[in-house]
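Quick review question:
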């Protein structure tokens, strides 16, 4: 299963937190990452997006349908993100558009066995997959990309 973690792009400060919108720079970041990501997405990819405005605006850059999922809102636990995606057994890939620190914690959990505080740059993605090797489930990094490199 492919699991793609996409941190929302740069957003304005303020409150309420769920209403924070992308800055002009954030819109450019989202567009650059969407341009890089869209042609690489697996055909059958579920796109799950936090209800926060900044996450929805980031996902909008793809121009694809997505599902808003409360379980990946700001403050979510990494296990909630994994459950929403169906990791590791879902039949199709999942793209989660969400927030730090949960995205970094998912990355740390899958790579290190514990919810470490790994950082995902604003607008950046971490693309993971899993495989069975000699009877053991392994997590593999397929890509890490940031808007400045896209």
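Suggested answer, residue by residue:
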């Amino acid at each position: 299963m492919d699991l793609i973690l996409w941190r929302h792009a740069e957003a304005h400060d303020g409150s309420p937190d769920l209403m924070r919108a992308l800055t002009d720079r954030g819109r450019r970041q989202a567009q650059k990452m969407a341009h890089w990501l869209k042609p690489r997405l697996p055909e059958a990819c579920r796109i799950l997006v936090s209800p926060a405005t900044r996450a929805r605006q980031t996902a909008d850059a793809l121009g694809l349908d997505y599902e808003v999922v409360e379980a990946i809102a700001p403050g979510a636990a990494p296990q909630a993100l994994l459950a929403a995606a169906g990791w590791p057994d879902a039949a199709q890939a999942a793209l989660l558009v969400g927030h730090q620190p949960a995205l970094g914690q998912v990355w740390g959990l899958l790579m290190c066995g514990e919810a470490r505080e790994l950082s995902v740059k604003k607008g950046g993605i971490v693309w993971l997959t899993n495989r069975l090797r000699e009877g053991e489930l392994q997590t593999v990094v397929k890509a890490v990309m940031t808007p400045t490199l896209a």
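Why it works: Strands lie at 2-7, 45-49, 67-68, 93-98, 125-133, 136-145. The chain has four helices and six strands.
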